Amino acid sequence: MRFQVTHHTAYDYESEVSSSYGEAHLLPRELPGQRVLGAELLITPEPAERVDRADYFGNRVTHFVLQEGHRDLTVTATSTVEVRGRVAAGQHPSEQLLVAQPWEAVRDLLRDAAFATSRTGLHGVADFLLDSPQAMTTAAAAAYAWPSFEPGRPILDAVAEFSSRIHADFEFNAGATTVGTPVDEVLARRAGVCQDFAHLTIAGLRAMGLAARYVSGYLETDPPPGQPKLQGADVSHAWVSVYVPQIGWVDVDPTNDQFVTDRYITTAWGRDYGDVAPLKGVIFTEGETTSLEVSVDVRRVGGGSPLQQPVGTVGPGPAVQGAQQ
Questions:
Q1: Are 204 and 144 in contact (CB under 8 A)?
Q2: What is the helix (H) or strand (E) element at residue 254, kind and residue range?
């Protein structure tokens, strides 16, 4: 499938801003199963300095500096992305025993020093075993996750059940939290948005000794006929990847209670939201208020050609509702 993604952000400042410094994670990654056919990031006013590079996690990031006075700022990212239908983890016969392995076996392997130093070991994984500022493995997060991780339970069964519980127990409420709400506060309020649900999932998985990362991206805005519109489709979305040795990263969306499908487009991943915020920065001004408008549109623009590499690390789940800020 081929999608066109438009992410438009507009700031309107009360008083003139003398200078500003920004960082954007708005352009999709090139991945097995996801091909970026074109991508452009337009910033107005035009920055005095701009650097496009890959960050520590391999995401596409843009740094920019505006040094002349301005009263407004717009940042528009437009991308055309081709996504091949994702294959559920474990559907291939060679993977069936791997996804059936007990979650404790995965945990123990991730702790094993020999695995950590092997060619197929923890390179690119170890960062996601540790606490991060917005996904702390608190006692409350561990206690909430624990019932899903019964002894001997297959790893993906445990992950799916944990995700489903979050979907069932928490209300999607965009006014209940902010971008900095801690995991324990989300647990106490039993409400939030996809960012919060992703952080809670990550905290619980890491508390169980598993590797989990935060994924930022988009959902198809208008669903195909007969399929429900998913929550989080009108803004940038967030979900979670959990690492299963010998299979790779398996993506699950607790907001919508499903494994990630071909209606998802990946932009960036990191330890938590702080690593991959779509747009953040610092401004210098005497004004006290700023208005912000964000709009996201993801539309199919026609069938794509087959990709050369299969996905194979994600799979379909129940198309239940569930969303980001």
A1: yes
A2: none
